[in-house]
Write a structure and sequence with these properties.
Helix content is 48%, strand content 13%. The protein contains 9 helices and 5 strands. Helix 5 links the parallel strand 3 and strand 4. Helix 4 packs parallel to helix 5 and helix 8 packs across helix 9. The protein is globular.
Length: 203
């Protein structure tokens, strides 16, 4: 994933896997790694900003379409300016990229398509590293709508988290909760929780 983000011409990664495999966990783990001493020089100290297509579109406003498109434009432009300043870069994480894209009856489908058109126009400078995430069905729908855009991304297949990695990710969450609420969550409790679920928990 970091090798793709270091690519000078196409720093665009697409996390691909079944619903719930843990794409968010991968992004969170990458975010922590980029703050470590082991991070590559060009990405050391980089921050990852999440943009959810769905969260920005589903707002009870008449101008929700214009609001979402303007928000995406502004975010990309501000990120481009920041990344040219010489400071540790910002990486954009585009969540929900393909949600509802394959449903022609969905009320927000046209708005999602418009946002992807904005994204395609804005990416020509290659100055904003991107991480997108999609499921199998979403990737199929996106390819059928705009295969050219999807070819800009290099796909990274995300298998379900192993039990060991699931516990590591849950431990990070538990540590944060302990700090906020002044409680203790034992490793035994986390192991019991992980074994009780049918699939390994995404972050």
């Amino acid at each position: 994933l970091q090798d793709i983000l270091l690519h000078s011409k196409k720093p665009f990664a697409l996390l691909h896997g079944q619903e719930g495999v843990g794409q968010g966990a991968v992004v969170s783990a990458l975010s922590r790694f980029l703050q470590s001493e082991d991070a590559p020089k060009r990405l050391k100290g980089a921050t990852i900003h999440r943009f959810s297509f769905e969260e920005f579109l589903f707002r009870p406003k008449d101008d929700e379409y214009k609001y979402a498109v303007d928000a995406l434009k502004a975010l990309i432009q501000e990120t481009e300016t920041h990344n040219k300043s010489g400071k540790p870069p910002i990486i954009l994480y585009l969540d929900d990229m393909g949600r509802h894209a394959g449903d022609p009856k969905h009320s927000q489908r046209d708005n999602f398509l418009a946002m992807r058109n904005v994204l395609e126009r804005q990416l020509r400078s290659h100055s904003v590293p991107l991480i997108g995430s999609v499921t199998d069905e979403e990737l199929f729908a996106l390819n059928s709508i705009d295969k050219g855009l999807m070819k800009q991304f290099q796909r990274v297949d995300v298998p379900p988290l192993s039990m060991e990695n699931t516990l590591k990710e849950i431990r990070h969450i538990a540590d944060e909760l302990e700090g906020i609420h002044g409680i203790k969550i034992s490793n035994e409790a986390l192991e019991h929780l992980t074994k009780k679920v049918d699939i390994n928990l995404p972050l």
